[in-house]
Amino acid sequence: MNRRDFLGAAGVLPSALVQHSQGITHVDTVRTGPALKSSVVKSSSLQATGDSPGAKAKTHFNGPTKQLAALASGLVTLEPGARPHPPHRHPEEELVIIAEGTGEIVVDGVTTHVGPGDMMYAEANVLHGIVNTGKTHMTFYFTKMLAKNA
């Protein structure tokens, strides 16, 4: 199931929006393949991806580990006013750390203004989202984790 299908099935996006080819910048966790190995990934070596206007993601790690069914981690840059996707929910737990810029994060219906050093934790299947409300670009780091028995 891809991201757009998941958002529609979860009732987060109206069906008309799911059918429309709206740009979404999202990293789906990879659950197959060999376990990730300890390493360092240089951001400069990564290709930025994403279809949402003003939102680009770089994925440093994505795959199963010896202890997790899936781990995805990387960074996202948002231009002023941009968001990677509408508020959403997924089976992975997620951490977000704001590196630069300012914005708003909504978690389970509560909106919080955020800036550098602020951090979000969203439990599995809790509605959450982020938007750059500042006048400069915003960068945040994300890590999504899915337990093997989840």
From TrEMBL:
Keywords: Metal-binding
Pfam families xrefs: Cupin_2
One function term, GO molecular function aspect: metal ion binding
Membrane spanning residue stretches: none
Domain Cupin type-2: 75-142
Metal-binding keyword on record: yes
InterPro entries registered for this protein in UniProt: Cupin_2, GPI/OXD, RmlC-like_jellyroll, RmlC_Cupin_sf
Name used for this protein in its record: Cupin domain-containing protein
